[in-house]
Sequence to fold (436 residues):
Amino acid sequence: MKIDPIERSPVQMTESTEIDTQRDIELAADLEDPQEILAVILDPKRRGTLYPYLHRLREIAPILKTDQATGRPAWVLTRYADIREALKHPDVRSDARGAEVFDVGPEGHHFVDMQRNTLLFLSPRKHDHVRDLISRAFTPRSVELRQDRIQAVLDELIDRAEPNGGMDFVHDFAFRLPMVVICEMLGVPAEDLPQFYDWAQDSSRRGEIGGITDEIVRKGEEATLGYTNYFMKLIEEHRENPRFDLMTALIDAEDEDGSRLSDEDLVGGCYILLQAGHGTTQDLLGMGTLALLQHPEQLEFLRRKPEAIPTAVEELLRYDTSVQISQRVADVEFQVGDTRIGADEVCVLFNGAGNRDPEHFADPDRLDITRTPNLHLSFGLGRHTCLGASLARMELRSAFETILRRLPDLRLDDDAPHHYRDSLFLRGLETLPLAF
Ligand code: HEM
Fold:
């Protein structure tokens, strides 16, 4: 697949460019009202600074009942052990009830309908069936077979950027690698890739848990319809002309009783693979690279000892993760710490807070690329554990190895600051200008 240039839409910058400034650590420590702390965490203007406020919330109200997070009553959990308990509990689920958080009325219904057809929000029986079919393409063995292709894409991206002496790492590199890989797996033709850029951004912004304006809803609908029409056409083409790709495998897959996935299931499957398969990895590449550049001694260590890259990747996943939030709803009353959470009550799990919980990780705010063990929550746990974790790990390891080897003078561009996106559910950088 040749990687064509992608036109860029104007982006909305957030004010904050740094994380964990001393000022924020002090400000957070002074806050006493958990609702006020949560308001800071949810404020779209402050998405760079996050962890001092998550720490403070965990300290004073680790299990907080609030309607601030989702617009309706929900429990916000920030302790590692509690999040783990909710994710592993057999009667605590992610199903269609979770998709209600996106409901803004009829003008936004296409997006909500699409979410209900994705793995994260299917009924348990259907979820297990669809997951079983898709996961065959994501076993460590199947992923290993993609290694050479991933390397070729990485080399092409660096070849293109190198003569310029710099690039916006998010746009020119981090977005493209996972997008090209997942599109090739799905059987999406290379020339169609550029049109996904805006759909991907707009869909991910619509999936946030706060600050949803009419414009965001409108763009979310456009992106959903764009994806739906695109995938329907591609499914038809694959039906007429079967190929050796994931799309054909999903179309052909039969249940024990001979039934096949409906068009809605197929579109929902393609959508989540494309959205979950590229944005999260893009964000981890961006935030991981930033973290390494902000810790030059660790970057240097990794240059000297590239064999430490797999351990470093786990730490970068823990240190600043892209999927900051998971949602669950209990079927029955269950116990978290000393709190009873009732049936049908929504739990909002702050994975990023769990990853920085000092009860579980020693010195959690320190980036330590040699940290082991490192049982972070960044790929989730339980029934909905990330299906693409093997692929993501391979992409991240290969990308860091290639960047370190091929760009020995990599540094932040002093003339252009980096910016976090206006998002929290899926945290990431909008821009990361680099020089080399
Ligand atoms: C660094 C990259 C990634 C991160 C941090 C990440 C994180 C996550 C997390 C936390 C979940 C669980 C969500 C929940 O429990 O509510 C999840 C689920 C999922 N991920 Fe990933 N992911 C990454 C890459 C990928 C890739 C590359 C793919 C596919 C190509 C993928 C596909 C999925 C799918 C399909 C699910 C839903 C699984 C289910 O509901 O059964 N992810 N991911």
Remarks:
- The chain has 19 helices and twelve strands.
